[in-house]
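Our consortium's second objective concerns turning raw sequence data into structural hypotheses that experimental partners can test. To show how far this objective has progressed, the report includes one record in full. It was chosen at random from the queue rather than selected for favorable results. The single chain below, 122 residues long, was entered without modification.
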Amino acid sequence: MSNIEIALLSFPVLLLLIFLRIPIGLAMLLTGIGGSYFINGSFLMIFAQLKNLTWGTFSSYSLSIIPLFLLMGQFATLGGMSQALFKAAETWMGHKKGGVAMAAVGACAGFGAICGSSLATA
């Protein structure tokens, strides 16, 4: 069978697994492993690729800083900084219509200015 035929046969198998109430992620994993097995003829290539992709993904800089960003947010919460930022923003904008929402945005802007990443704070 060609690769296209294997892909076309894998799609109904995926739908069948989903209709059998297997979680979508597991159904996609099983279908992908099965398709790779039929294309390569062995599981060794699949496991080698899985090992390399896992190591490459988790050793990237952008994913390694996420736990540290969460730890910084936990320190801000335990230290009372997040509550102080929200209280300051609520004092400044809380009396207006929609003031709580504006105060939340203001507190996020303050935390983004402190940590250096306004996009990660959102």
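The partners drew two points from this record. Residues 65-121 form one domain. The mean pLDDT is 87. Both points have been shared with the crystallography group to help prioritize constructs.
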